[in-house]
Amino acid sequence: MSILVPEPLLQVRDLRAGYGNVAVLHDVSVEVRAGELLALLGPNGAGKSTLLRVISNLLPTASGSVRFDGRDLRGRSPRDVVRNGLVHVLEGHRVFSGLSVRHNLLLAGYDVPRSERAQRVEEAFAYFPELAAKRDDLGSLLSGGQQQMLAVAQGIVRRPKLLMLDEPSAGLSPVLVDRVLAVATRLKETGTAILLVEQLVEKSIRCADRVCALAQGRIVLRADAQDADLVERIQDAYFGGSLERSH
After folding, report:
1. CATH of the domain at 43
2. pLDDT tens, position by position, for the chain (247 residues)?
3. Angle at 101 between CA 98 and CA 106, to 5 degrees
C-alpha cells in the first residue's frame, strides 16, 4: 500500500534569478514543509536575500518555479503572495518611523476586519512584551533591536502559513538575537512554518529542523539540524566548491 506524502508548503525548483544581466541564483531548489523551521545559511553575497525576494515576487525569475500551498506564484503580485499566507520580513528593521508601534501593527493588518485586527495586534504584543510597553511610542523612538522586533511582529499580525525572516539578527545584541529566535521557535510550535535566513550558524541550527547552505548562488548542503558535525560540514561547504551535499 502506497503512503501519500503531503506536498511541501513551499516548493522552489531549479530557480535562476538575478539583477539585470547579473546572475545570482543558479538552479536553486528548496522545500519548506508545513510547521517546520528551515534555516538557510550562507556567507555574505551567497544569494540568500535574493532567493527570498524572488519567492515573495519582489524580484522576477529567469527560469524555474515557485509553488506555495499548492499554487504557482508566477504572475502574482507581492500583495497576493501575502494574502495567500506567505509573509516576508525583509532585512533592515523596516518600520514606519512616524507611526506609533500600535499603528505600525494595525497597518500590517490593513485588510483584516477591524475587530479581528485589534485581536491580532494583541497576539503580536504577547510575543514581544517590550513592544506592548511602548505601544504608543513612535517607531523612530525605538532602538534598533526593538525595531527588528516590531518588523517581526508586523509579520505575526498576518498570521502567516509561512514566515520568511531575512537576517533578523543583523545589528542586534546577542540577548536580542536570542529573543527573536525564541519567538521564531514559538511560532513554529504553533504551526507556522519558518524560513530563516541567517549568518549565525550555531544559533540557527539550535532552533531549526533542517538546514540548507547556499554559496555562490547554489545549494551546497542539505541536512537535518541534528546531524553530527554539522557546523564543520557547513563551513566546509561554504568554501568547498559548488557541489551539493545531502545527508
Report:
1. 3.40.50.300
2. 445 567 899 999 999 999 988 999 999 999 999 999 999 999 989 999 999 999 999 999 999 999 999 999 988 999 999 999 999 999 876 789 999 999 999 999 999 998 899 999 999 999 999 999 999 999 999 998 899 999 999 999 999 999 999 998 887 888 888 989 999 999 999 999 999 998 889 999 999 999 999 999 999 999 999 998 998 899 888 876 444 444 4
3. 100
In a domain, 4, yes or no: no
4-5-6 Cα angle (round to 5): 110
Start-to-end Cα distance in the chain = 27
DSSP state of 42: -
Q: Is 146 helix (H, G, I), strand (E, B) or coil?
A: helix
Nearest to 90 by CA among 147, 15, 16: 147
Say how far apart CA 229 and CA 201 lie, in whole Å: 12
Tally of domains within the chain: 1
Domain that holds residue 33: 10-93+161-239
Whether 247 maps to a domain, the answer reads no
Residue 89 domain flag: yes
Contact yes or no for 148/165 (Cβ under 8 A) = no
Q: What does the alpha-carbon distance between residue 164 and residue 54 come to, in Å, rounded to a whole number?
A: 12
Q: What is the pTM of this model?
A: 0.91
